[in-house]
Amino acid sequence: MTRITVLGAGAFGTALAVTLARGGASVTLWARNPGQVAQMQNTGENKARLPGVKLPINVAVTSEISFVPADEPVLLTLPMQTLRGFLSESRAQLDGRKLVACCKGIDLTTLEGPASLIARACPKAVPAILTGPSFAADIARGLPTALTLACADDAAGEELQRRLSTPVLRLYRSTDVTGAELGGALKNVIAIAAGIVTGSGLGDSARAALMTRGYAEMARMVTELGGRPETLAGLSGFGDLVLTCTSTQSRNFRFGMALGRGEEFDPSVTVEGAATARAVAALAGKRGLDMPITAMIAALLDRKLTIAEAVSALLSRPLKQE
Ligand SMILES: NC(=O)C1=CN([C@@H]2O[C@H](COP(=O)(O)OP(=O)(O)OC[C@H]3O[C@@H](n4cnc5c(N)ncnc54)[C@H](O)[C@@H]3O)[C@@H](O)[C@H]2O)C=CC1
Ligand SMILES: O=C(CO)COP(=O)(O)O
């Protein structure tokens, strides 16, 4: 039987633990907060992040990362901006393992994605990325989902693909870790922008234009960093961009809608695209890349311009070839 460790008991970690356990794996789900662990053990449910979903009996919840089996998959389901600190604290338990990052974003301090953070903190680990269009609530309901599993070592990737696929969770394999992780990170920024367009009442046509031009600037960054454009055309890029820019289930999209309407947004909700917009704008600046939508979102979040000014700046750029 496959034994899977899931580190991070937010909505996504809990949903993956549930679906993998339903698929027959023995799952250990770790949360840092002993109070949350006790609540989950007592109620058989993660009431804080995934209410209404029962944890199967083959999910063991713990606040101790003691023994992590060497050959079994370890999923990292923490928010992106906490990953670097977590890896450095836990390297003794994690080095040498198959570490599958499920978080979407770019680290604000190092301007790196999850695979590079893993490689630096745990040099003997096999880094992999699990990403693509998937809301935790959909996965937890057992709805069909298809994701990308990217690992530079294709043999290790194939084994991970086999162990992490279930009858309703279909994984496609790739060796393009850079392309896969960038798709998941960059689409969140464009989803905030799409939410702003919707919340400000700019219309569906404007949103489609924004998604398309957003995709063009995502492709520029992927190519610059050595990822493959065809990866971006798959689940991890195009697939997740479409999902996140068109569904109010997306927190990034809802955050953008609130901005567009001039409403407050609950600061305790995880919105990965906000930090990632700033990180990507900094990276694009360093590399001399033209990423106007990302730059506008970063400037808006830092209150350097208004939505009206951002729209006007985007529309008044020099006319160019598509
Ligand atoms: N929720 C979803 O539908 C999906 C989420 N993801 C990605 O999964 C990652 C996690 O997101 P969610 O589970 O939705 O977040 P969440 O907001 O539901 O939960 C985050 C969890 O991380 C915990 N946490 C925060 N800082 C921590 C630290 N330093 N150490 C340990 N635990 C810490 C929190 O206590 C909380 O339980 C994000 O990168 C997100 O983009 C990916 C696909 C779908
Ligand atoms: O990444 C996701 C869907 O694939 C989840 O999107 P949000 O983080 O915007 O809710």
Automatic annotation (TrEMBL):
Tell me the protein family, please: Belongs to the NAD-dependent glycerol-3-phosphate dehydrogenase family.
Annotated active site: K187
Q: What terms describe the molecular function in GO for this protein? A: glycerol-3-phosphate dehydrogenase [NAD(P)+] activity
This protein is called what?
Glycerol-3-phosphate dehydrogenase [NAD(P)+]
Q: Would the keyword Transport be found if you checked this record's keyword annotation?
A: no
User: Which parts of the sequence belong to the Glycerol-3-phosphate dehydrogenase NAD-dependent N-terminal domain?
Assistant: 4-155
As recorded in UniProt, its EC number(s) are 1.1.1.94
What pathway is this protein a component of?
Membrane lipid metabolism; glycerophospholipid metabolism
- Which keywords does UniProt give here? Cytoplasm, Lipid biosynthesis, Lipid metabolism, NAD, NADP, Nucleotide-binding, Oxidoreductase, Phospholipid biosynthesis, Phospholipid metabolism
**Reaction catalysed by this enzyme:** sn-glycerol 3-phosphate + NAD(+) = dihydroxyacetone phosphate + NADH + H(+); sn-glycerol 3-phosphate + NADP(+) = dihydroxyacetone phosphate + NADPH + H(+)
PANTHER family the record matches: GLYCEROL-3-PHOSPHATE DEHYDROGENASE (PTHR11728), GLYCEROL-3-PHOSPHATE DEHYDROGENASE [NAD(+)] 2, CHLOROPLASTIC (PTHR11728:SF1)
Identify the main location. Answer: cytoplasm
What is this protein's function? Catalyzes the reduction of the glycolytic intermediate dihydroxyacetone phosphate (DHAP) to sn-glycerol 3-phosphate (G3P), the key precursor for phospholipid synthesis.
